Amino acid sequence: MIGGRWVAGTSAANINPSDTNDVIGDYAQADEDQARLAIEAARDAFPGWSRTSPQQRADLLDQVGSEILLRRDELTNLLAREEGKTRAEATGEVTRAGQIFKFFAGEAMRIAGDSMGSVRPGIEVQVTREPVGVVSLITPWNFPIAIPAWKIAPALAFGNCVIFKPADLVPGCAWALAEMLDRAGCPAGVFNLVMGRGRVLGDVLVGPGVDAVSFTGSTGVGASIHARAAQHNIRVQLEMGGKNPLVILNDADLDLAARIACEGAFGATGQRCTASSRLIVEAGVHDAFVARMSEEMGHIVVGDARAADTTMGPVVDGRQLEQDLEFVHHAQVEGARLVCGGTSPTRESPGYYLAPTLFSETTHDMRINREEVFGPVASILRVEDYDEALAMANDTPFGLCAGICTTSLGRAMDFRRNAQVGMVMVNVPTAGVDYHVPFGGRKASSHGPREQGRAAVDFYTNMKTSYFGC
């Protein structure tokens, strides 16, 4: 969709990862010239859209949120079929997307400023916020409707115009969002959808005519976007990788800890930046935790994402499966003990399946503990005490989130204060966040203002200070 019109392009097949014989559809892919046209359309639309009333923007977003929730079953099926989340996970994501649009409908009405007296007599000062302009939104495949929602909704709520490029593996959800925005009466050029490969469209979307870029994806791609944006003085918001620790102390409830670890490590097939990939366990409960974790993993049912009894779907495609299996092989070569999983099971339909995988007897310098796997693979590290656990949790280039399982309020508060991350979870999974609060990390995980919640206003608006002589 460019300038309010659906435009043809080269087509690419959208394949179901649970059944590679199932083609969801053929979706158009844009080229560089079409991406430039989308930027031009957004620039033309910006003066009018930026001056619309907050009520008009709120009504648009609220209508989209309502349609998402009304079509929850249909969109759940599409998401499960396209990305491979289980029906329960897909339903949760679709619901969250609808709630995000409705939340930012409210935020459109609450763009606040300040009025204050000057230190100089006879002068008043006003601080106001204005939209940034044209923003490129580049999203990943692992949350194909929720992450686009938490970028598109605030961008539009605060008066910006959007160029939206979803991951090429999940065009269906992006197409559905574009249709809903169009039906809700989004003016031509305010929202533009360009689908296709990042290597084809990336330089255009982080180039002349764009005022800001919000990206979620790999650390390497994020670094290249940052460098290119700097050449054009483009504002950047980056959410990238994670290697998130979950610390289990001797005083933890091990049944609860095992459930939390399983949800954090294997929920959404481990394909989320907040996954608990490093399980750091105090020596006093190490062996008991490994046994309890193995038992809990035995309840996971791997299969077609749409099947009622499936509790973990496939990985997203063949390349991701190959990468995950390579990590499994390398961990064994380095001496890690494979507790369970590590295989690619066959099912009735051909798909990209990987059994949930757990390693023990790993060391901190192993590749599996240093790099993001982005699959259902977790490793256990044994430590002697809390101080060693905290130091190991922080010894990583990443800093998205960290969790701890403990019954000690003192340890929980110390961990909250000293964990070098943007988000801390105490006795809850590292994966799973609310839509109305800030999201983001530190170090190589994030760059720029936070996403979601009221914090989103910091990225999508400029602040202006005005002086009035009385």
From TrEMBL:
A Pfam family: Aldedh
InterPro entries assigned to the protein according to its UniProt record, in alphabetical order: Ald_DH/histidinol_DH, Ald_DH_C, Ald_DH_CS_CYS, Ald_DH_CS_GLU, Ald_DH_N, Aldehyde_DH_dom
Active site annotation, chain numbering: 239
Residue ranges annotated for the Aldehyde dehydrogenase domain, each copy included: 6-465
Keywords: Oxidoreductase
Regions that span the bilayer: none
Gene Ontology terms for molecular function: oxidoreductase activity, acting on the aldehyde or oxo group of donors, NAD or NADP as acceptor
Similarity comment: Belongs to the aldehyde dehydrogenase family.
Protein's UniProt name: Putative aldehyde dehydrogenase
